[in-house]
Amino acid sequence: MFTGAWWWATALVVLDLAIRVLAVIFVPRNRRPTSGMAWLLAIFLIPYFGVIAFLLIGSPKLPRKRREVQEEINTFMRAVSAEERHDETHGNNPAWFNSLVEMNTRYGGMPLLAGNSGRLLGDYEQTIQAMTDAVESAGDYVHVQFYILSLDAATAGFFDALERAIGRGVRVNVMLDHWASRGKAHHAATKARLDAMGAHWTLMLPLQPLKGKFQRPDLRNHRKILVVDGTVGYMGSLNMISRDYNVKKNIKRGLKWKELVVELRGPGVATLDAVFISDWYSETGEVILEGVRRAELVAGGDSLGRLSGALIDHRAEFGTMLTQVVPSGPGFERENNLRLFLGLIHAAQRRIVITSPYFVPDESLMYAITSAVARGVPVDLFVSEVGDQALVYHAQRSYYEELLRAGVRIYLYPAPYILHAKHFTIDDETALIGSSNMDMRSFGLNMEVSMLVRDAGFVAQMRDVEDEYREVSRLLTLEEWLRQPLRSTVLDNLARLTSALQ
Asked: Nearest Cα to 207, choosing from 196, 216, 197?
């Protein structure tokens, strides 16, 4: 006679079998093989916990409404880009570069623009001061967008400058990532200060289910942008916070972040501004139209088409740089930043220098890098000697042996610094800088912004930065790496498996 316990046991076995069958059908669909295999492994080994985790974070997509808004913006920007003249921007470029620009435009919508100048800023305090000085000169508007924005001793002067700008009648619009900023010290004080000064601000990707705002919990807007009056823009890796991030364990270890930011002038600033305006529209439903002395907010998507003159405004030329701003993230299909990275690496003929604090590549990126070395192109990779995020740090280390055996030169930037800069150069005239790491999170889960540059003078600036890194860094050898203890290898490999769960 069958007991109640027998029926429960049978039901659990049937449920377990059903979970495994359904997982095989639905999990790998439209997902990269490594990610699909990692999720299947998690579900098969720990079925109930694995299913719950998959339901919470298994989809890297934004909510449907947000995707529709982003596609509306992308379609509009592609239409604007199609109207751009190509003779002054495309005429002297190699065919491979123009084809990458075409791909970027197709997937990200932004045009390639001529007549820009760029100054690299690598000193942490001086970079914040340069941004503060730019705000002090504002006469029309200031657009502030940071993954982490925090009021502390290092950033107080920047907040003071914003307040003085508002006092002059300047409109200040501010965006900060909800989850990243709320986890930092002084978050409440930061929001209170923005309110007190009269800034217009909003959270990016807020997790507020009771207000109908919810998406995969670990999606982030990782962009860092400052635009003043449409004449000067800043973008790169720096968050507006103390360089130890006001985190106790960082302070105890003496960690300090090392960043790189570009100060941009010229027509390209308008496309950087377009990313901010697009994100503002996505979060608030309001379109920012820049006037002569103020920013006007217009509700509703019908006004989106009126932005063309403001977003792609050809002001006086400032230099020789060709620039293309490339937004990426869950609102864009086909991981367009990864495709750009791959295209540049495959195009390189003389040298490749990569700087990435979180280097967790997929198979395609590993093949591209190791293939470049095999065809005679030297590849240098700059990473931090120590890490601030244990899981990512160990996942990154799991790739070192394969890279070293292929002939990649790995330079370890010394402690106590976290080399947080994100950029790379190929040959002598092409560079990329921005907020995007070379890891699967930046490819699929983070909203990022990068800037493709074609200019020998700018690459020369980048080479100076790379030489500074090289002077203080230590070259890792294969012999040294093979002496790693077994426990480190085990940790690295386990972390590598979890990095594919997207």
From this structure: 216
Angle, vertex CA 288, rays to CA 240 and CA 269, nearest 5: 55
Question: 354 and 361 in contact (C-beta within 8 Å)?
Answer: no
Residue with tokens 């305006």: 277
Q: 183, 173 in Cβ contact below 8 A?
A: no
Tokens of 31: 């997902």
Please classify residue 279 by burial: count the beta carbons closer than 10 Å to its beta carbon, then call 0-12 exposed, 13-18 middle and 19+ buried. buried
279 DSSP 8-state letter? H
pLDDT tens digits along 287-337: 886 533 334 444 444 444 544 444 554 445 688 999 999 999 887 777 899
Q: What is the pLDDT of residues 45-63, one digit of tens each?
A: 676 666 666 656 666 666 6
Please report the pLDDT score of residue 293 as a whole number. Answer: 33
Strand ranges in 152-217 using DSSP code E only, listed in sequence order: 171-177, 200-204
Q: Two tokens at 358?
A: 């979180």
- CA atoms of 144 and 193, how far apart (whole Å): 14
Residue 40's contacts (CB-CB under 8 Å, 6 or more residues apart) are 23, 24, 27, 28
Q: What is the distance between the alpha carbons of residues 170 and 168, in angstroms, rounded to a whole number?
A: 6
CA angle, residues 188, 156, 242, in degrees to nearest 5? 80
Lookup: tokens for 10 = 């049978």
**Lookup: tokens for 501:** 């769960």
